[in-house]
């Protein structure tokens, strides 16, 4: 197991960053609590407001047509931003039981979206949520259920598997993706209990769950381990190969840069001994974006 050095700070000045996406020299980041999506020039660190989202942005992903599809958490909607104009992409308010969480779009344009199952920023206790599918015709379906606060959703390089984290059941699930996009064959792929010093009681007490994640060209999986304050890489069999110390809540990550070998790290700091969700609502969290150089770059995995 190798420990990688964290790089320079790229940007700051956000409340709570989520869902980083890299494209053409820019890093796109949702500031959930700040109600904005920013672009960050990865060469200069210059940060600009890309779009304001009144009901809080969270997951977002680039559509095959080049537009950005982003979520609006509190009103359970997706919007598409293209040519400087946002339009409604899908309304899931009739299906959603929690918030719009993380999301991924497959090569055909089909959206897979986390339904968190509980409105934790409104005082609800975490409970099972689902993965929703928004088909290319706008139809919304439940693809998978009984996932306790789904997060970190991504599709493998070959398109055969979809991975989704259970933040509050403290593990990573894997599903087979059928030809029609439906999910089957649920498997428990990985648990943080294999990390040094982690016991089941530690995971609950210290919020050692998975928040964000991405996959590299070799099928390696980078996971953001919230209260463990590390980003860890798994090989395709689930063995931990690399670790990066975060010095704050490891929230989300994505690969990018000119050669695809820069790992962009979203780190959110929470006041000591304060509940994460109460701190978020009270705007007492702060976000920084940093980088790390990795050996294996971006592949064909989505997002």
TrEMBL record:
Q: Does the keyword Transcription apply?
A: no
Which residue numbers delimit the SMP-30/Gluconolactonase/LRE-like region domain? 16-265
Give the UniProt keywords, A-Z: Hydrolase
Enumerate the GO terms in the molecular function aspect. hydrolase activity
Q: Does the keyword Glycosyltransferase apply?
A: no
**What is the name of this protein?**
Calcium-dependent phosphotriesterase
Q: What organism, scientifically named, is this protein from? A: Melanomma pulvis-pyrius CBS 109.77
Q: What is the lineage of its organism?
A: Eukaryota, Fungi, Dikarya, Ascomycota, Pezizomycotina
């Amino acid at each position: 197991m190798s420990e990688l050095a964290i790089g320079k700070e790229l940007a700051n000045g956000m409340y709570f960053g989520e869902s980083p996406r890299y494209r053409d020299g820019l890093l796109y980041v949702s500031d959930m609590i700040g109600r904005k999506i920013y672009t960050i020039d990865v060469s200069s660190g210059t940060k600009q407001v890309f779009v304001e989202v009144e009901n809080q942005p969270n997951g977002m992903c680039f559509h095959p047509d080049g537009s950005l599809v982003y979520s609006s958490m509190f009103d359970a909607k997706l919007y598409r931003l293209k040519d400087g104009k946002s339009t409604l992409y899908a309304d899931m308010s009739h299906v959603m039981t929690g918030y719009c969480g993380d999301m991924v779009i497959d090569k055909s344009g089909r959206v897979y979206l986390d339904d968190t199952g509980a409105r934790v920023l409104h005082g609800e206790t975490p409970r099972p949520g689902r993965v929703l599918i928004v088909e290319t015709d706008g139809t919304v379906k439940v693809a998978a259920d009984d996932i306790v606060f789904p997060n970190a959703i991504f599709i493998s390089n070959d398109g055969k598997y979809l991975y989704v984290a259970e933040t509050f059941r403290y593990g990573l699930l894997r599903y087979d993706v059928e030809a029609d996009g439906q999910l089957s064959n649920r498997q428990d792929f990985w648990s943080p209990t294999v990390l040094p010093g982690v016991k089941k009681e530690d995971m609950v007490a210290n919020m050692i769950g998975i928040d964000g994640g991405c996959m590299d060209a070799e099928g390696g999986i980078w996971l953001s381990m919230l209260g463990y304050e590390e980003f860890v890489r798994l090989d395709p069999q689930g063995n931990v190969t690399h670790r990066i110390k975060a010095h704050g809540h490891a929230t989300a990550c994505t690969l990018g840069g000119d050669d695809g070998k820069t790992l962009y790290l979203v780190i959110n700091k929470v006041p000591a001994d304060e509940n994460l969700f109460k701190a978020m609502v009270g705007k007492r969290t702060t976000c920084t974006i940093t980088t790390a150089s990795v050996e294996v770059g971006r592949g064909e995995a989505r997002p």
